Amino acid sequence: MLSASTPPPPRPRRLADNYFKGMESFFTRFKNVLVLVAILLAQTIGLAVQVRRPVDPSAPDGSSVTLIRYWAVSAVTPFERFFHGFGYNLRHGWSNYIDLRHTRQQNYDLQQEIARLRLEQAALSEDAIQGHRLQALLNFQQHYVASTVAAQVIGSSGSDLSRVLYIDKGAKDGLMPDQGVITPDGIIGKLRDVFPRTAQVLLINDQTSGAGVVLATTRLRAILRGSTTGQILINNLTPDSRIKPGEQVLTSGGDQVYPRGLPVGTIESIKPDPDHQPYTLIQLRPAANLNQLEEVLVITGTQPALPPATQHDLAVGVATSEAQAAAAKQLADQQAAEAAAKSAAQIVADRLPGLHDPDHPEADTTNPATPGAPARVPKPLPTIHPDHFTSGATPPAADLKPGAPSSSDPVTIRNPTPSATQPSTTPQPPPAKPNQPQPTNPQP
Amino acid sequence: MATRSYTSRRELEQHTFPPAVTVLVPLAAILLQALLPRPFPRLAILDLPLIVTIFFAVSRRNPVAGTLTGASIGLLQDALTNTPIGVNGMAKSVIGYIAASIGIQIDVENLTTRIFINFGFFLLNSFLIFLINRRLLAHADFHILWLHELLRAVINTVVALPIFFLLDNARRRE
């Protein structure tokens, strides 16, 4: 029983307690949703900070983001290196020691290929040197690959929306961000993040990738971009009838990442771009196989002059080309002299009469048959027993007058005697006619 | 006589895992995801970290744990890509929360249920990534081939079923 002296409890404390109890029940009831919202909010803020930060080509991420990536990469790459090394040793142990069955044939084929390439280089060397001379005259600045670092591909991002590779070389091997990465077939991308012992390669078919290119035939400059579907596209060219599928695309050197002239790919299709009218959407097939890369080269240095090895190769090519030209000229001169000598001999032979044996026409040395001359008609042999049908037995027409006395003389056949000194080019006189019945004139 | 009463279904079927499994299985999933596409480029269509996220979320039946598991796996996956960190984190956070919430309500041990939830969550993941890139990051050129995403969902569902059965053996025996 309350007495009049017992003070009532203070109302603000009850209100505060009720308030806190209410909040506690609210947080308890919606704990799960609140945790989800908080996590999403934190990640959204993180995304906003990353997107708003001005992009520095040498550092695409902020320091904190780079640190997070470094931790993640450090946790994963040791296992990638282990598995890559294990597989590499297994494959090469087999191919280097056990599977050497076709090595000799491969060696022979490679030597043949080298010989063919040397001849091809000889044909192109002079043009290349002339081109360099002209560029020097025009004071044209061009960068050539001076040094490269070979690296093995050890892993990927694991997502087909992010086309990046990890290689087993890093900052300690002299790599830096934005260095181009190539293979002998063509370019594949550039370095994005470089860690101490590994580096991240952004492939050219990634949606955030780009490169300056030039069409080999039409010499049109364009910008190459990747896409979310893994295709490489050019979408900043207006429709041009000169651009055709099959045209080669090379690096232009304008992006200061890839030296000029490296193969990029081949045009596969050309169609209007529905998102960027009136430009066309040109799809390329990459020169390098971006899906199966094992070894790559990182361009660590460029220089304005050709590397010494390339200059030596060009000089060898020029020398080979000159030797080939001299040999060809000598052969042509020799053939011309032989042709001239033959023609003089033929002229002389045509002018002088020559003797020939009809039985052995090929042995006739006085008048050798010239190649191409028509064949002589062989002279018939004289008959042994002439008769009415013997050639030359027909009497001349003057002896065939009507009423002419018929000759009772026996037929005397004169056998034509071949002349030993003169060819019988003139027809022989006919032999004496045989006793033929004479036509009688009817008496009036 | 002592009696037992269970106040909620969640107390019956909540599973726990050893700490080693909780840490190593997601790491192994991320590692395999990074290694497999190199010799087999076609395997880039798989999403092993998402399979692991769904499994842990439906097994634990704890939305907070599912959200945190999804966030951590997604952020680790983002760290290996060139995309901003948080894209996969946000998507997998949402999926972890929803998977755990569904796990409370229905029986997820059933094979048919597992097929449907895997297929649905893979499509949801594609949609969330599309939404984040288009709306949050303002990538107007971000396109998705929905037929390819449908195929991705089917393939990953097929791969998820044996992985689920394999990971069922990693549960703690109580």
Number of helices of chain A: 5
The CATH superfamily of the domain at 64-96 and 141-306 in chain A is known as Rod shape-determining protein MreC, domain 1
Order of helices and strands of chain B: HHHHHHH
Radius of gyration of chain B equals 17 Å
The proportion of strand residues of chain B reads under 5%
Shape field of chain A: elongated
Oligomer: heterodimer
Mean pLDDT value of chain A: 76
Helical percentage of chain A: 25-40%
Uncertain segments of chain B: 1-12
Give the spatial strand order of the biggest sheet of chain A.
1-2-5-4-3-12
**Helix/sheet category of chain A:** alpha+beta
Give me the Rg of chain A, rounded: 50 Å
Into which percentage range does the β-strand content of chain A fall?
15-25%
Task: Please explain how this structure is put together.
The complex is a heterodimer of chains A (about 450) and B (about 170). With about 450 residues, chain A is an alpha+beta fold. Chain A has a domain at about 65-95 and about 140-305: Rod shape-determining protein MreC, domain 1 (Thrombin, subunit H, Beta Barrel). Chain A has helices at about 10-30, 30-50, 65-100, 105-135, 310-350; strands spanning about 145-155, 165, 180-185, 185-195, 200-205, 210-215, 220-225, 230-235, 250, 265-270, 280-285, 295-305. In chain A, the strands form two sheets. Chain A has a six-stranded antiparallel β-barrel with strand order 1-2-5-4-3-12. The radius of gyration of chain A is 50 Å and the shape is elongated. Chain A starts with 10 loop residues before the first helix and ends in a 93-residue tail after the last helix. Chain B is an all-alpha fold and about 170 residues long. Chain B has one domain (about 15-170). Chain B has seven helices and no strands. Chain B has helices spanning about 10-15, 20-35, 50-60, 65-80, 85-105, 110-135, 145-170. The longest helix of chain B has 26 residues, at about 110-135. Chain B is globular, with a radius of gyration of 17 Å. Chain B starts with 8 loop residues before the first helix and ends in a 6-residue tail after the last helix. At the A-B interface, helix 2, helix 3 and strand 1 of A face helix 2, helix 4, helix 5 and helix 6 of B.
